[in-house]
Each structure stands twice: as structure tokens, then as C-alpha cells.
Amino acid sequence: MAEEEKPNGEEQVKDNNNNNLYDAVQRLILEPSKIKASLIPLFPEASRTYSRQLLHWSRQGSPLRRILFISIGIVALVALSGLVAFTLFFLAATVNAIFVSLLISLAVAGGFLVLFFAFVTAIYIGALSLAIFAISTVTFWAVVAIIITAGWVGFLYTVWLVTSKSLGLAKQSLSVTGSAITTYSAAWGTRNIADKNSI
């Protein structure tokens, strides 16, 4: 028994000795990936649950809440579309600039080629600046137009809702007034008949 415990104890000592700096650094680097790997399957279900809760919230309230939900979604979609368009243009311009820089470094000997490629680089920078301005302007005004449209739709819907409620209240008021007049007339008529019979 003592001999069996001794090899186990020795193995345990060997395992403890294998924990060197390399293993510690490797564990430090690999642990976040293990955490990411364990959390990645949870993201689809979490996003489905969140979207279900968001749809349930938008359906619970009044139609004004749905208009708010739709307008915010459209604004976010347009803003993200502008961001993606700018990112793609920026990526293309960056690849072109890298290519031009490579050609410039290859053409160091020729002064004319260096000057030519410097002008081409300046044109790329100008095109990138123009694209930034154009895409941001279009995205900004699209967002403004969507917000104004959503505001007008909400305002007109509110006016229609208030008008329909007011007409319903007026109709109910006229109905109550008409029934009160009918009741008063009937009571007045029976009183007059009773007075005539007593004379």
C-alpha cells in the first residue's frame, strides 16, 4: 500500500513540476477563447429572446409605440447602411493607397513616376474625403427625413385618434341628451294628461 501511494505522490509532484511559465501563459491566452467558445452558442438564443421581448413590448402598447419602434428601426438601418457604405469605400481606398505606395516604392529611381504616383495618392485622398462628405450628407438627410415623416405620421394619427374620440363623446352626449329630452317630454305629457283629467 505504501508503495502504491508513493508512485501516486511522485506523479502528483511531476504534474506540479510541469506547470511552467509556458503552460501558465498558454492557459492565460487560451482561457478567454474557452470562455468565448462556451458563450458563443448562447448568442443566437439570447438574440431571439431579446427580439421576441422587443416585439411583445411594441405590440403591447398603442399604435404610437409601434410608430416609434418602426421609425427608430428605420433610422438605425439607414445609419448602419451609411456606415457600411463608408466602410466599404474606405476599405477600397485603403487597398488602392497600399497598392500605390507599393508602386511608389518600386519606382524610387524614376522621379517622374514618383511625382505621378504622388498625384494619384492625392486623388485617392480627395476621393475618400469626397466620399466621406457625400455618404455622411446623404445618411444625415435620410435620417432627418425619416424622423420628420415619422413625426408627421404620429401627429396625424394623434389628430385622427383625438377626433374620433371627440366624435364618439359627442355622439354619446347627444344620445344621452336625446334620451333625457324624451324622458322629460314623456313625463311632461303624463303630467298634462293627469292635470286635464283632474279638471
From TrEMBL:
Keyword annotations from UniProtKB, A to Z: Membrane, Transmembrane, Transmembrane helix
Transmembrane segments: 67-92, 98-125, 132-160
Listed name of the protein: Uncharacterized protein
